[in-house]
Amino acid sequence: MNTTTGARLPATLNDLFQFAMMLTIAAILTTAMTFQYYGGEIPCPLCLLQRVAMFGVCFGIILHFRHGYSARNAGVSMLFALFLLIVSVRQTLLDTYPRPGHSYIGSAVLGLHMPVWSIIIAVAVLLAFAIKIAVLGDEHLPDRRPSPALGRLARLLGLYVIAICLINFGSVILQCGAGACHTSEYKLLSSS
Amino acid sequence: MMLAVFATMSVALVAGYSGPRWFAVLSMLVCLTLSVGLFLFEVYSPEYGFHMPWLQVQLDVVPHGWSLGGHS
Questions:
Q1: Which residues of B touch A58 (CB under 8 A)?
Q2: Is 90 exceeded by the pLDDT of residue B22?
Q3: Contact state of A62 with B38 under an 8 Å Cβ cutoff
């Protein structure tokens, strides 16, 4: 393996890693929105904050594919993953105790409810970043742009993430208005 | 508040995709600050504070021996 190939391989693997992570998070968010719009499950405030945290992880990845590798971009993604972990752990611990009017929000997927899945997702994101940094390091990554083909795909995926964020934004306007969010109804669509 | 959180995140994503980097980062920081503030607001209960409903740290009845200093 010559020096150029040896330097390019970690950068390519890093790009694939970032792309796969954004694709996975986009799929998770799309699934959540499918449950919301087709299943009629209105998200709770903590659920919405978990979505924001997932968009935040994607924000760092979008910056990576636009400006090239920077440890700061990975730091931003990990910061939002940590926020996702804190919010989902709080919601899971809160919902563990049965109280009138309070239960796990939404339906279970493979036996686990949404906040529990969010914990798994957050730990997986943090673990993936930790393993990626441990294995690939970052000495060969700076000043390297993604390959054109992967870059184009990532730009398309980034557009999709922005689109679903804007849809969520519109949905929040309908559900919460300018006030607090409730899971009982879309505030601006209710007749009363 | 949630409206502002999603508005700033949308702006951050759009700016991160095609706008100035400093503006994207600024929007992201505003969004993160608002999100943390909203999270703390959501978990706060005037009745219970920040504690978990299944964790009780206050005794309903003080055991008899405790008032005599016999608990240690």
A1: 13
A2: yes
A3: no
